[in-house]
Amino acid sequence: MSAIYPSVFARFYDLIYDRIRAGVDSDFFLEKISEAKGPVLEVGTGTGRFFSTALSHGADIYGIDISPAMLDVLKNRIPAEDHKRVSVQDIREFKHAVKFRLIIAPFRVFMHLTETQDQLKALNHVHDNLSEDGLFIFDLYIPDPGLLSKGLKNVMDFEGEYEPEKVVRRFVTAENDLVNQINYLSMRFEWDEDGKILSETWHSELRFFFRYELEYLLQRSKFSSYELFGDYQGNPLSSASKEFVVVCRK
Ligand SMILES: C[S@@+](CC[C@H](N)C(=O)[O-])C[C@H]1O[C@@H](n2cnc3c(N)ncnc32)[C@H](O)[C@@H]1O
Fold this sequence. Notes:
Layout: H1 7-20, H2 22-35, E1 40-43, H3 51-56, E2 61-65, H4 68-77, E3 86-88, E4 100-105, H5 116-128, E5 130-141, H6 145-150, E6 152-163, E7 166-177, E8 182-193, E9 196-207, H7 211-220, E10 225-229, E11 243-249
Helix pairs in contact: 1-4
């Protein structure tokens, strides 16, 4: 399944996204977690960009992800007694004994669901696992028609040292199906190891959404109401917005 992240991506994930993403969404999600008055579930918790900080600040947080390699990295960041808080599970059918006050799916987790029936299944399953008045917060990027029509051809979007004098580079290719709203992504990682240059490529698909499709989907779900924001500062959507930040109320 193309949504399962391979170990090469898990290995370099924090190095890459601490540089290119942390300043965008970290304060927002950490604040939402700390404000929650009850247990929190992070869906698609990945390597624990938010999870490990939230846990060390005392949050009653749990995590699920479908990629074992991502959770292996996360488990190395948290105390062994907290490993039971994370499990390999899918947003569409996870099982948990408790109901959550807040469920979050940060950084485009939802875009890995390429079929409408899976998107609805996920929304309704999250809904059913919230306590009364619980919130589900997730995000999606807002499609840029110019970028989508051009695509990307082997563009190096990251270069950095993962250990002193050992460099990793990432090259991205994106071919976009504008009718079916799918990004076909290839990520090639190239890194120095024992004097050799190693390379691995991962293929994945992301489903992009336009505003009213997203709204119709939310209206078809079990959620009683939702709000859409255009960034992580709570600003309304505008023609300049780059992200849909979605807050659904049970
Ligand atoms: C871009 S990463 C985001 C990780 C983390 N939330 C962050 O902000 O750094 C997307 C994550 O979603 C996970 N994922 C994709 N599809 C999923 C599904 N159906 N159920 C649970 N997790 C999923 C992937 O394994 C990956 O770890």
